[in-house]
Amino acid sequence: MSGRGAVSGPGAVSGRGPEGGEGLGRGPVVGEPQQERVEGSPLAVAPVGPTRWVGSAVLRRALGRRGGAVGLGMLVAVALFAAFGSLASPWDVGEQDFEHLAVPPLTGGHLLGTDVGGFDAYAMLVAGTGRSLLVAAVVGVCAPLLGAAYGATIGLWGGRRERVGLWLLDMLLLMPAFLLVAVVMSAGGGQRQWWAGSAWTLAALLTLVGWMPVARLVRAQTRSLREREFVRAARYLGLSSGQIVRRHVLPHLSSYLVLAVVTGASLAIVTETLLSYLGIGVRPPEVSLGQLVGRSTGQLYAFPWLFWAPTVTLVWITLGLALLGDAVRDALDPRGRR
To answer: Hey, what domains does the chain have and what are their CATH numbers?
Structure first.
C-alpha cells in the first residue's frame, strides 16, 4: 500500500503545504481581506464590504492648503457670530428703541446703530447672518445629495429606465426655476401665508431647482462605473441598486460631491441675496443679509452703516466659500498635489 493517501469524491481538497509537501490548501491568513466566490459569474472573486469614501481624503488635502484653511476659518468665524453674536447686545431683533431712531453706531447702547424704525442694526445683522447661512447650508448639502442619488440610480439602471429617468430630468431642467421661486415666495399677496417668505421655504425651493445639474453629471460618471468589476461583482452578489449606489458608487464620486457642496452653498447665498434684494426672497418678520442690503440701498448716503455692515458680512462669507472651493479644486487636480 502506498504511503501517499488518496482522497476522492467531490469534497476532496488537495494542495501543497508551505514546505513543499502535499496536503490541504492554504487557509485564510489573518490580516488578508476576505473574498467571496461568485458562482456562475465571469468574475473569479468579489470583494466584500463597501468602497472607501475618497471625499474625506480630498477634503483633508484641501484643508492642508493655506487657502482652504483660511476659508474654513472665515466660515467658522461667521457661523460662531451667527450662533452667539446676540450675547454681545441686549437688544432683540424685533425690539424697537423709539428714543434712538436712525442713530449711528455706538450710540445709545447700539453697537451698529439703529434704522429709522428704531430697530437695532447689530441684532438684525446677527439674525440675518444666521438665516443666510441656513439657506446656504441646507441647499449646499441637500441639493448635491439629492442629485447624486437620482443621477447614480438612473445611471446604474441603464436601458429603458435610464432613458425615462433622463427624459424626466431634462423636462425638469426646462422648468422656469426663477419664476417658480418668485411665485411661491410671493404667495398670498397682502395676506401672506405662514410659509411664504420664510428662509426654510426658500431653502427648500432652491434645493428642488438646484439638484438637476448635479444629477446629470453624476449620471454620466455612473455610466462609466457601471461595467467596472466591483459593480458587476456587487450585482452577482445580489445587492440591490440602492445598496450598490450607497456602498460603491457614491463613495467613488464623493470627491466631486465635496466640491458640489461648496459650490452649491456659494450659489445659494448669492441667489438668496438677489431674491431678497428684489423683495421675493426672505421677507419680514424674518431677516436675511440680502434683505438688509436691499432695504438699506436707498438710504446709503443718509445711513451708510445700515448698508455696509450686511454687505461686508456677505463679502466675508462668499470670500470664505471661494477660498475653500479653490482649495478643493486644487486638491482634485493631480498636478496640485505637489
So the answer is: 52-337 (1.10.3720)
